[in-house]
From TrEMBL:
<protein>
    <recommendedName>
        <fullName>Conserved oligomeric Golgi complex subunit 7</fullName>
    </recommendedName>
</protein>
<comment type="similarity">
    <text>Belongs to the COG7 family.</text>
</comment>
<dbReference type="GO" id="GO:0017119">
    <property type="term" value="C:Golgi transport complex"/>
</dbReference>
<dbReference type="GO" id="GO:0007030">
    <property type="term" value="P:Golgi organization"/>
</dbReference>
<dbReference type="Pfam" id="PF10191">
    <property type="entry name" value="COG7"/>
</dbReference>
<keyword id="KW-0813">Transport</keyword>
<dbReference type="GO" id="GO:0000139">
    <property type="term" value="C:Golgi membrane"/>
</dbReference>
<keyword id="KW-0653">Protein transport</keyword>
<dbReference type="GO" id="GO:0006890">
    <property type="term" value="P:retrograde vesicle-mediated transport, Golgi to endoplasmic reticulum"/>
</dbReference>
<dbReference type="GO" id="GO:0006886">
    <property type="term" value="P:intracellular protein transport"/>
</dbReference>
<dbReference type="InterPro" id="IPR019335">
    <property type="entry name" value="COG7"/>
</dbReference>
<keyword id="KW-0333">Golgi apparatus</keyword>
<keyword id="KW-0472">Membrane</keyword>
Length: 874
């Protein structure tokens, strides 16, 4: 057995545990005593070896101590000496540094030597003065040389120009400018300065025709030479202008091909029309034109091909400038055709609708008010605009790939120029006015554009019922109206979802804050329309309040009878009554659908905002530019300085110049991550209010028949009728309940059958069956409680009741109690007290109340019954 000594050095060493472990590791056939003896012997031998080694090493350490002490003393003396030497050197360096800061660089190599030799500061100051004099003399000498050279160059420059050697002329002019900068503002050379400017313009004019020819014929060597001449005289701007001028003509020709094709097709159509004019008079329909949307992709393809070829040539001709020259060409060209581009986009959006196509108008014309009344922006217009924008987006991605080597700012400006024609449709500013007569109406935001479009689309949804029905068929109209209301909800949600998708595709989400305001406003308008219909349905169902009161609380349990306009039950059949009930119950599905659909849409909108926040990666300001991420950075001056290459999408291009708008959007995106955030706060509140109004209407309709039957109960003549004399012992009251209470009971017992179809429609699956059953039971209890409350209120209004009336009323109450029990509803204590007190003989009522002491009876109600029956409790 090998003893592992490392275990004995462990702080948590347990001797018992170690011995038990050693015993367990022995061979099963080896006696335990022998194993322990061997283990003890091994431990003793190991201990002796350790002790011997320790003694040997201790003796050797003791012998080395005197020698180590002597070495320590010697090192300490050396350190003290080194410290003194270092202090002296440090003092010398400090003196030298103080002198270096006061005198020219050329004397500083003397400082260390002078200081080391103990030279005084006066000697160094003298050397500095000598150096200043020397430098001034050298500057005067160089200036005199430049002045002499400038005079000579001024006298010979005309000969250089006459020779026609343009590179030599450029070199001469460059030298003249250098000499002028050296001489400074000297009056004697003012005429030379003017002469130089004239000569530079002259040389620039001589270079331009040759440069134009070189660019046109693609002569690389000549273009490079002429470029060098312009650079030498500081006229790079002329190179840019000439380059753009030469090549923009070809691009403009590509752009104007659309009008040429339109004119050709128009002329061709006119010839054909003349041939068959005798057979038809529809002149415009025969003209075949090419739509802008079908022509635009081919234009972008040809333009991209042209720029690719020009990029390859510019790499050879202008290796130092091609990264800026070719993008500048595209920027200037797009700025030139921008107004025409906007006009064509506007007309293309109008061509998709016959009304606007006939008037040759588009989205901008509609928004500016320059259209007949009733013509609104439709989603078809925006879809056409989005299709054009997607084409431009594909072209922009190709341009970003082609100009990938360009500087980030150049690439940013280029892509902004590509998307420039769509800016009037995203956020209309004063410079994009269509009509000067209505400047105030020509300004709008993208959110307002969507709001106008969505409002017009929702207005086209027919929410009213069919034609007005006659008596006996009005329930059908009610059902039709409710059905259309319910069907309109998913249609509206689809429109809202499409608007969100358009915003992401068209603006990259940069107008999300404006869109949310528009969605909230449109949703509010839609719910207001539903509420107006709901108000008309109240009057239609005959439960509209005539006292002008507001909404009723507690599901109508506190309504006053005099303030209700109740539909006369006698005028309609029982079947018609139940059709009203079914129509009213269907309104609950409208509220349920609106609540669920709006909640799902709002949750989806919040998820979209969160996804947009992640995609833009623009939530952190003030951080350094990360080329691998899409960050817009604030440079501290209030302007967005630059963006990462990966962030050059539509949103970043639009936000980079509007930091305040960017901050507003980013704050919204951050807030959307909070679970308490409401994307549509006002609409959410209005949905809840609409649901309450629906519940109130449904309750009023369901309780209407009960209220009608109970409205005159307190004034029935049977309560105060006297007993009729009879020769036979006949009962003085009817053994059957009266019709007013039996009709209510039958209505309550039939109501669950009416609620059952509604509950089945809400469940739609077994998982919601319990919820649907709870829904039906809840409404059943509400109506039953309301009926009980109305009945007890009528009973309280009875002024006097005879014994005969009391016996009849106890039968009525007992019937209603049995109906409530059949509906699994507990009997209210008030109704139970009325039944007990009315069923008790008048002479026993006093003893009953005193013996009860409030255990089973409601004492205020019992006292009221005593007052009705003229029973004195005193």
């Amino acid at each position: 057995m090998i003893v592992d000594l490392s275990k004995f050095s462990d702080e948590k060493f347990d001797a018992k545990k170690w011995i038990n472990g050693a015993c367990q590791s022995r061979h099963p056939q080896e006696p335990l005593e022998k194993h322990l003896v061997d283990l003890e012997m091994k431990l003793q031998m190991a201990s002796e070896e350790i002790a011997a080694s320790l003694e040997e090493q201790s003796a050797a350490a003791i012998l080395r101590i005197p020698r180590g002490a002597r070495d320590v003393v010697r090192l300490r003396d050396d350190a003290i000496s080194l410290r003194h030497s270092g202090n002296d050197i440090l003092l010398t360096l400090k003196q030298a540094r103080s002198l270096q800061s006061r005198y020219p660089l050329r004397f500083r190599h003397f400082f260390v030597v002078l200081v080391a030799e103990g030279s005084s500061a006066e000697s160094i100051a003298t050397l500095a003065k000598v150096d200043i004099v020397k430098r001034r003399m050298e500057a005067a000498y160089e200036t005199l040389q430049d002045a002499a050279g400038l005079t000579q160059l001024s006298s010979t420059v005309e000969d250089v120009f006459a020779s026609g050697d343009l590179p030599r002329a450029a070199e001469t002019l460059a030298n003249m400018r250098h000499c002028l900068s050296a001489v400074g503002e000297v009056a004697e050379f003012a005429n030379v300065r003017k002469q130089l400017e004239v000569l530079e313009n002259r040389l620039d004019a001589m270079v331009q025709p040759r440069l134009t020819d070189a660019l046109t014929t693609r002569k690389v060597d000549l273009a490079q030479e002429l470029r060098g001449i312009l650079i030498r005289i500081g006229r790079f701007k002329s190179l840019e202008l000439n380059y753009t001028k030469v090549h923009s003509k070809s691009i403009k020709q590509l752009w104007e091909n659309f009008d040429s094709r339109q004119q050709q097709n128009k002329n061709s159509g006119e010839k054909k029309e003349v041939e068959r004019f005798s057979r038809t008079h529809d002149f415009q329909s025969s003209l075949q034109t090419v739509s802008f949307s079908s022509w635009l992709p081919s234009f972008y393809d040809e333009l991209l091909l042209y720029l690719e070829q020009e990029w390859k040539w510019a790499v050879l001709a202008f290796p130092d400038d091609y990264k800026a020259l070719v993008p500048k060409l595209l920027i200037d060209t797009m700025a030139t055709v921008s107004a025409s581009f906007v006009s064509r986009i506007n007309l293309a959006t109008g061509d998709v609708i016959p009304e606007t196509k006939a008037l040759a108008k588009g989205v901008l014309d509609i928004l500016s008010g320059d259209m007949p009344k009733g013509v609104k922006v439709q989603t078809t217009h925006l879809e056409a605009l989005l299709d054009l924008h997607n084409m431009t987006g594909s072209f922009a991605r190709n341009i970003q790939h082609l100009f990938a080597e360009s500087d980030l700012q150049v690439l940013l400006d280029t892509l902004k120029a590509v998307y420039l024609p769509y800016e009037p449709f995203k956020q209309r500013q004063a410079q994009y006015k269509v009509t000067a007569m209505s400047p105030s109406r020509s300004l709008f935001t993208y959110g307002q554009l969507e709001s106008v479009t969505l409002s017009a689309e929702i207005a086209r949804i027919d929410l009213r019922g069919a034609v007005t029905r006659g008596i006996g068929a009005q329930g059908i109209e009610l059902s039709e109206t409710v059905r259309r209301m319910e069907e309109s909800i998913p249609q509206v949600i689809v429109l809202l979802e499409a608007a969100v998708e358009r915003c992401i595709n068209f603006t990259g989400g940069s107008e999300a804050d404006e869109l949310i305001l528009a969605l909230d406003d449109v949703m509010l308008q839609y719910i207001s329309t539903l509420q107006e219909i709901l108000k008309s349905l109240r009057a239609f169902c005959g439960v509209d309040a005539t006292d002008g009161g507001g909404s009723k609380k507690d599901m109508g349990l506190d309504k006053k009878e005099g303030g209700q306009h109740v539909r006369k039950v006698e005028l309609t059949s029982n079947e018609e009554e139940w059709s009203y009930v079914q129509g009213a119950l269907q309104i609950l599905t409208v509220a349920d659908c609106l609540t669920s659909r709006s909640a799902v849409f709002e949750a989806s909108l919040k998820a979209t905002l969160a996804r947009l926040s992640t995609n833009l990666s623009l939530s952190v300001f003030g951080s350094s530019l990360d080329q691998n991420q899409s960050h817009i950075v604030d440079n501290g001056s209030g302007n967005m300085s630059t963006v990462g290459r990966a962030a050059l999408d539509v949103a970043a291009l639009r936000l980079v110049d509007v930091p305040e708008k960017a901050r507003k959007l980013f704050n919204l995106l951050e807030q959307s991550k909070d679970p308490r955030f409401h994307a549509l706060p006002v609409a959410s509140q209005r949905v809840a209010a609409f649901t309450d109004a629906v519940n109130e209407l449904v309750y009023d309709v369901l309780i209407s028949k009960v209220r009608q039957r109970f409205i005159e109960v307190s004034r029935l003549p049977i309560w105060s009728s006297a007993e009729e004399p009879s020769a036979f012992p006949l009962p003085s009251f009817s053994a059957y309940p009266q019709s007013y209470v039996t009709s209510v009971g039958e209505y309550l017992l039939t109501l669950p059958q009416q609620l059952e179809p509604l509950a089945e429609g809400i469940s739609n699956s077994e998982t919601n069956a319990d919820e649907a059953q709870f829904f039906a039971t809840e409404w059943m209890f509400k109506v039953a409680e309301g009926a009980t409350a109305l009945y007890t209120e009528q009973l309280r209004g009875i002024q006097f009741i005879t014994d005969r009336g009391a016996q009849q009323l106890s039968v009525d109450i007992e019937y209603l109690s049995n109906v409530l029990s059949a509906l699994s509803m507990p009997i209210p204590p008030l109704l139970s007290t009325f039944h007990t007190c009315f069923s008790t003989p008048r002479d026993q009522l006093k003893d009953l109340i005193k013996s009860d002491s409030g255990n089973q009876l409601d004492l205020p109600t019992a006292n009221l019954v005593c007052k009705m029956r003229h029973v004195n409790l005193e």
